[in-house]
Amino acid sequence: MALKSTIFRATLNVSDLDRGYFAEHALTLARHPSETDERMMVRILAFALHGDERLQFGRGISTDDEPALWLKDDAGQIVRWIEVGLPDERLLRRACGKADEVIVLAYGGRAVDVWWQKDAATLSRLPKLRVLALAQEDSRALAGLAERNMELSCTVQDGQIWFSSGDTTLSIMLRSVFPV
Prior knowledge:
Blueprint: E1 6-16, E2 21-31, H1 37-49, E3 55-57, E4 69-72, E5 78-84, H2 89-98, E6 99-107, H3 110-123, E7 129-134, H4 136-143, E8 149-157, E9 160-165, E10 168-172, E11 174-178
Helix pairs in contact: 1-4
């Protein structure tokens, strides 16, 4: 028997002073059985950082033709394709052909630098690509906030990120991998 996805619900308050974006989002996430809390919470962080009323989660980890998140315009064109983790370079090349902008929120500690060095020659030629890295201690701390029902808030100011749940507030800085 196949395992089913686990449903998580989150109320996410975003105050992004850098972009002038302030909103509350009611999110429903289906976590695939093979997806970790860490990856799911990084997806929520990516949503907070690129929040928009039209931003949507893709169908999931087992789908190659959809990203973790994407933003489409009114005509259905892909404006922003967002991946989390360490995606395959072929997927990113395809994404750059379909979207106006492709963003990767990479996590995994030293694996991020190994992944980038392996495909840097190809990926650095993609002008639509931007890669940001999340420190391993930050992605693991995010995973510790995962609950079936969450009240989350994210504040962004001057590139600094504060991500909160209850009495816990994480201070997060992203590192730009590409462009440097």
